């Protein structure tokens, strides 16, 4: 007798419900984790908020949209970083729902659910996306751009041009790799017959006009900042090292989809004893152009992004791994065939759940156990609120003015910039990266200078003492981390630069 689980029946009867359940579950999981474990923002999120607070049209970190939205979310949440965590999860929900809409248009609703479930196991999506920034915001925008591109090319829906232009314009305001992604879309359209027919009207011209209007402020900044030039090309002697770097990045992308590969292998019929008893998920025949569309955008962004990063020696894939691997789950479903047999259902569910829950367990283990096993600092265990409140209150008590600026140690200064007064951040070692503030203006308005104290006297490091001659250090302030373990207390040296009296 054939056994069909409730989950399979739900996929067949209520595919949308299944998508909402799994996507909202993952979003809720990564909203609960930081509230339980994180006392300071992960990664560079504090720096993102410091940049967003200035509302610059462009910076050395790229287009401004993600930074603006981060600051808006932070303010709407009452100057609490939870607003940015929520924004990051909303981006994830929007991305998966848009991916489902695209997959449903290509393989039908039932197999579209499987495409979403597979995509969720990709490391770029299953690991925490709390570090909101351009790479996180680009994911739903890229998904929307692909959805509307397919509606234009594959379904000949002319009314999608306006939505496509909005997607493209916002993507240009989000990541620096957006022109490359738009060239990939244009290249696919030009090389297909239906794509060329789509371009043979005035609609693309109007769409380009909307894109230009949206991206104009950032383009003006790029021209004024002389940022149009490409990074320097590698010398011939560096080509072997850059090729190795490209191979490492490409290998990292392949490793990131190992969850999809494992689930596909476990579901294969190679070792099945009774293949006829497996429940089947049907789909209508796939349009040949749709197959080409899925394969192209599952491979081209990954190759182009890793190649660009390898040639110019970027730390990560251009555009982000989330953009590069967005179509990987759908590509696996398209390659499977019109009939997908779900074998070893319990094992598949267990492996999928492990892929989703493992990052949460890893975050828990890193927070609770890592301080007991080594001397490495857990950045999210630093008491950001206590640090910001102490230095903000200390400055206000000494000067009778709210804290206007902070500099010194980049990590500590970024955390203090989250204080209620939202002081400006100045990078002490790279002031050109914070064009809204310089040392002359800092000395005029006054502020706090912080560093990691190496002694009980609080002697400032040489680079800070050189920047601020005559700096009088205060008694270092010690803070306890969430889990101290074998680590010493966080000891922060600090000094006040008093504002000049007009």
Structure description:
The chain has 502 residues and is an alpha/beta fold. It has 2 domains: 6-365, no CATH class; 379-497, no CATH class. It has 23 helices and 7 strands. It has helices spanning 6-13, 15-37, 45-52, 65-76, 82-107, 109-120, 123-126, 134-153, 161-172, 178-190, 193-199, 203-224, 239-256, 258-266, 288-311, 321-324, 328-336, 345-368, 370-373, 384-399, 410-416, 439-445, 462-467; strands at 280-282, 339-341, 405-408, 424-427, 447-452, 477-479, 490-497. It has a 5-stranded mixed sheet, sandwiched between helices. Strand 3 (405-408), helix 21 and strand 4 (424-427) form a beta-alpha-beta unit. It is globular. The mean pLDDT is 88.
Main-sheet strand order equals 4-3-5-7-6
Number of domains: 2
Distance from N terminus to C terminus (CA atoms, Å) equals 88 Å
Please bin the fraction of helical residues: 55-70%
Low-confidence region ranges: none
Beta-strand fraction estimate: 5-15%
Task: Write the topology of this structure.
Blueprint: H1 6-13, H2 15-37, H3 45-52, H4 65-76, H5 82-107, H6 109-120, H7 123-126, H8 134-153, H9 161-172, H10 178-190, H11 193-199, H12 203-224, H13 239-256, H14 258-266, E1 280-282, H15 288-311, H16 321-324, H17 328-336, E2 339-341, H18 345-368, H19 370-373, H20 384-399, E3 405-408, H21 410-416, E4 424-427, H22 439-445, E5 447-452, H23 462-467, E6 477-479, E7 490-497
Helix pairs in contact: 1-2, 2-5, 2-6, 2-18, 3-4, 4-5, 5-6, 5-8, 6-17, 8-9, 9-12, 10-15, 13-15, 15-17
InterPro entries: LipidA_mod_glycosyltrf_83 (IPR050297), RgtA/B/C-like (IPR038731)
Pfam family, one: PMT_2
Subcellular location: Cell membrane
